[in-house]
Design goal:
403 residues, two-stranded antiparallel ribbon, disordered N terminus, transferase
Length: 403
């Protein structure tokens, strides 16, 4: 399918389908305009005790060159408002628990500077995003933005017209899972997350599970027709391990699709450079990922494609979608896309960076506040033509995969 934001796609060569033996079953189910496509022969689907990907992901990336400190932004002071470039002023104001059986301990959220985060009882790791109303509204806007990127479609993988079992990993507020369940009423859909923030009024063929995908998945082997993952950057140290669990849980011939973003904001016309807050955004995030051990440079290090191949998947295809971060394009469709992505960013900038900038990078609150003031001013300035890349990688479990 085509999109005005999609990069030119080169044909993928079909990889040979290896035979391999998946991990032993775990007892029964419980709980995006240019496209580049690539495909290569996978490694053996048999999970090995250790993989090059695991070693890669556990090794911190080198320190980020050109990174400006929080103190730098504090020294700059607050930016001067420019009414002529303040597109945002024209916007105006139009900008519970799941069906799973959960214990009250899951609702014992952590707090950080007045924001709530997931309960420590669900996962041993720390997710950087809050789970409160402001952040959840941002996730809803993000879901709509992604449907615009994909011309209203919920997926790009060539899945069956009649899927029976589908899981959405890291479902957030659950809108993708709800829309998929509505589109396929005969399909059993599961959405998983570490916070019970999904609605209770959902299609009858949908349920939400509170679960941590970075641990062993509590689903039986060879069960799902399609596994969907979206915006999970910075949430795991080992992507190959997660993809191996997905491989185990997919039926032979089933598909996995992982959509994620680069934090790097760039321009194709040199309207921004390393001194801009926009460009520094990605550098700060990458350094925070390096310090925490949870990589956020999935695109830069090609972790999705490499991890899926090492997990045993075949027909691995990737496509990059450069998205405007504000409505600067003249093309009306891309302008609309930029408008919504601007809303994604500015709905809850503090929530996006509170943990990574403050807790991980050690920036005091006043440094974060001044940096974000500069970032907001640049996002409002239509002379800055910022872009950010989203990457879709989908792959198939071999039809002849052994149980």
């Amino acid at each position: 399918m085509s999109s005005p934001a999609e990069k030119a796609q080169s044909p993928a060569s079909e990889a040979a389908s290896p035979k391999g033996k998946a991990k032993s079953p775990t007892p029964g189910p419980a709980s995006p305009a240019t496209a580049r496509a690539s495909s290569a022969a996978p490694k053996s689907p048999t999970p090995a005790p250790a993989t090059p990907a695991a070693a890669r992901e556990s090794t911190p990336a080198p320190e980020i060159p050109g990174l400006l400190s929080g103190a730098h932004w504090l020294e700059q002071g607050l930016p001067t408002a420019d009414p002529e470039s303040d597109w945002d002023s024209t916007l105006g104001s139009d900008t519970e628990s799941s069906t799973a059986s959960i214990t009250s301990s899951i609702l014992h959220y952590r707090t950080l500077n007045g924001r709530t985060y997931h309960s420590d009882t669900v996962t041993s790791g720390e997710y950087w995003g809050p789970n409160d109303e402001k952040q959840n509204e941002m996730l809803d806007i993000y879901h709509h933005t992604m449907t615009l990127v994909f011309d209203g479609q919920l997926y790009t993988a060539p899945i069956s017209d009649d899927p029976k079992h589908v899981v959405d990993i890291g479902t957030g507020t659950g809108l993708w899972a709800i829309d998929f369940a509505d589109k396929f009423p005969d399909c059993t859909v599961i959405g998983t997350d570490i916070s019970p923030i999904q609605p209770t009024w959902v299609p009858p063929n949908l349920r939400f599970d509170i679960d941590d995908y970075t641990k062993e998945w509590a689903y039986k082997s060879n069960h799902f027709d399609y596994i969907h993952m979206r915006w999970l950057t910075g949430t795991t140290k080992d992507w190959t391990a997660a993809y191996k669990e997905a491989y185990r849980c997919l039926k032979p011939g089933g598909w996995i699709e992982h959509i994620d973003a680069s934090g790097t904001i760039y321009s194709e016309d040199n309207t921004i450079n390393e001194k801009n807050a926009m460009v520094q955004w990605g550098k700060i995030w990458q350094e925070a990922g390096r310090k925490s051990g949870n990589p956020v440079d999935l695109l830069e290090r090609n972790l999705q494609e490499q991890g899926m191949k090492e997990a045993g998947f075949v027909n691995v295809t990737k496509k990059d979608y450069p998205i405007p971060v504000s409505p600067w394009p003249k093309d009306e469709k891309r302008k609309e896309l930029g408008q919504f992505f601007y809303l994604v960013y500015t709905q809850d900038l503090e929530g996006l960076c509170q943990y990574m900038f403050g807790t991980v990078m050690g920036w005091p609150q006043e440094q974060i506040a001044v940096y974000l003031a500069h970032l907001r001013a640049e996002l409002k300035n239509m002379s800055f033509h910022g872009l950010i890349d989203f990457r879709v990688v989908y792959a198939q479990k071999p039809l002849d995969a052994e149980d």
